Amino acid sequence: MIEATAPGKLYLAGEYAVVEAGYPAVILAVNQYLFVQLQPAESGVIYSSQQPDLEVAWSRQGQQICTASPNPYQLIISSMQVVEDYLSALGVTIDTLYRLDIRSDLDDEQSGTKYGLGSSGAVTVAVIKAVLSYYQQELAPLLVYKLAVLAQLRIAMSGSFGDLAASSFGGVIAYHSVDRNWLKTALESSSILEMVEQDWKGLAIQTLDLPDGLDLLVGWTGSAASTDQLVASMQGQLNQEEKEATYRHFLQVNRTCLEKLIRACQANDRLAVREAIVTNRKQLQDFAAGMGMVIETPQLSRLCRLAEAEGAVAKSSGAGGGDCGICLVESPAQKERIAQAWAESGIVPLPLSIAYTDRE
After folding, report:
1. What keywords is this UniProt entry annotated with (predicted)?
2. Would you state the pLDDT for residue 356?
3. Which domains are delineated in the chain?
4. Considering only CA atoms, which of 49, 193, 192 is closest in space to residue 123?
C-alpha cells in the first residue's frame, strides 16, 4: 500500500494580486492534511470519506481513465490521468488498476464545515504523489506542482495555483505565479515532458521562514450571511473605470509591501514582518472598498481588533468574506489570551501550525 499526504494552506499576504504574473504572495502550508492510500486492485475504485455512500469504479480505454457514470471526482481522475500520461511519456508501462482511498482533515469532520484551507489543491497534490510513488518515481516538489497545475488546467480550473505550490513544497513560501498566457500557448505546442522539464515564465517558488519569535494563530469566523447584500449595495456605486484604476493601484502597492515582507523574512526581521502585515491589511481594505467587494467582514474585523488589543497583528486570509483570519503572535501567553478573546466572540481558534516538513 502507498500512502501520501498533502498539507492545507493559508495566505499570509498577497492574495488577490498573486493571480497576475510577477506579483508575489507569501503562503503557509498548515498541519491539517489530505490523506491518500493507493493499493493495487483487480478493479479500479475511487473512494472518499467525504462521500461515504459513493464508490466510483474506473477503468482504462487505451491510455484514458474512464468512469461509467457522472461523479464528483473529476479533479481526482484528472490528477491520476496527468501522472499516467507523464509516466507513459517516460516509457513506464501502465497496466495495473488500483484503489484510491481519500480522507481529509482540512474540513470539520462532524459538520463538513470548510475552513478555506485549500482542499482542492491538497487532493490534487496528494493523488499525484500517491500515483508517482506507486510507480516508484521521485517526488520532487517542483515536478509535483507542475503536474498538479496541468491536472487542474485540464478541467478548466483557474487561479494562481498558489495552493498547489504550498501543498507541494510545505513550510512558508514566496510565490510568484506562472504567466497564464504563456502557459496556455506552451500547452498548445509542447509535450507533457517538455512542459515539465522547461522553465515556466513568471513562476518562482522560494522557501522562507518566519522570523524567530513569531508564531501563527488562526481563527475561523464562518461566512457572513449579509455578504451578498453588502456587495450588491456597493457594486452599484462604482463604474468599470474606477474599478480598473483601483486594481492597478492595488497591484502596485501590494507588490511593494510583499517585497518588503519577503525581505523581512529573509533577514529574520520580526518588526518589519509585523509592519508588512498591518500594511497589507489596509491595502486589502482599500481594494475591497474600491472594487465594491467585501473581504473583511465584521467578524473578521473583530478578529483583528481583538488580536491588536493584545499587541499582535492580524488580517483576513485568502478570499475573505468569512472563513479564516490569520494572526502573528510573539508569546504563548499572548496567543492564549487572543484565542480566549476570539472564542468569547464566536470566533473559533483553529489548532494550526506551519507544516515545515511533509508528514511522510
Report:
1. ATP-binding, Kinase, Nucleotide-binding, Transferase
2. 80
3. 2-208 (3.30.230.10), 215-350 (3.30.70.890)
4. 49
